[in-house]
Write a structure and sequence with these properties.
Length: about 425
Amino acid sequence: MIQRLKIICRQWLGLFFGLACWACAGLAQAQPVASAVRVEMEGPVTRLIFETSVRVDAEAYVMSNPDRVIVDLPEISFQLPSTAGQAEPAPRGKKLPPKTVTSFRFGQFALGKARIVIDLGRPAVVKATHAVPRIGGFDLIIEMQDADAAIFAQAVKRATQEAVAREILADGPKRNERSAGAGLPVIVIDPGHGGIDVGAQAVGNVQEKDIVFDFAKSLRMQLERTGRYRVVMTRNGDSFVPLGERVKTARDANADLFISIHADILSDPQGVSGATIYTVSDKASDREAARLAEKENLADSVAGLEGIDDVGDVSDILFDLTRRETRTWSHAFARTLVNYWGEAGPLNKNPHRSAGFRVLKAPDVPSVLLELGYLSNARDTAALTRPEWRGKAAEATVKAVDAFFANRSGTAATGKVPPAGGAR
Ligand SMILES: [Zn+2]
């Protein structure tokens, strides 16, 4: 009935307005129903399939002692026979090897949430969960694959770590504050190097730490002047700040965007010039990016600190869990900044690159590293030391920040991922 109403509505109202009407939205929110369930086995693969009235997306993971698969899904009405999921009695006189799925149970788990618990007769891992359309609704398929004990143990460990991380993300007071929309977006500006660590040095005693600090101050002033952002600096003078401390500042400030400012230098310049915007990645986009990340990551050892990853274990787990979304936003900002930077000055011929920068590893803060230019290039150095250039470059960065947040609030409202192109 609901399906038919929706079809009629889409046909008529959608035809005129190109939109689903509010009634459709209301119907779409009606509680899903699971009306049938079956188990299918195919070699090492076992599928538990629930027939649902609407699309239901689920998340599944394994737990041990007893070995089981947990499936978390939105609240759903299970209109199934009372015997559904019960273990089958073993045939008399026959000793069969245990099946992957011996039994399962289901029900409401918490407000707005349902859960399915699948008891495993032998070790298996979750291959995938799919919602596949069929006539009159969807099939919610939980696909499991038999695994050896070591792989199963690994999957359990991973699931436990993710559960811990999820709890931290859900319960962190700062996260709650942010989701309540409190205050202005927070931008953390990170002028690279400082104090004992001077960074790159060009002729005429031009030091990276001073150039990036001057730019950071100009950017801070222009951002604050808009009245739209709260700005936090990772250093407020010529002091040394370890990389991990910079990441911590961003996380403690509950930052919405982290911009690390640097200037590069090449021993063999060959006319290389212009700004480059870097994002974090496990694998460097090219040799140059790998070289630069290695150099910037050495900042701590320059000051006699050990180059350990200060973000720690829990952050690593968080990093894995949230990094896809965070990276999407980091990329979106990098692309936007590339688009706007053209107003301020030249860009490197390959302006958006990526590598494993330690300072960009806050798992939940979109982060970029902006290399203003090359101190090995005379034209770049001349520009970077000029206050007029600094003002113009900071202005272009503010425009990119504005475009990023306009895009972000727009997509947050619709739940869409950022567009593939720039924000312009
Ligand atoms: Zn640097």
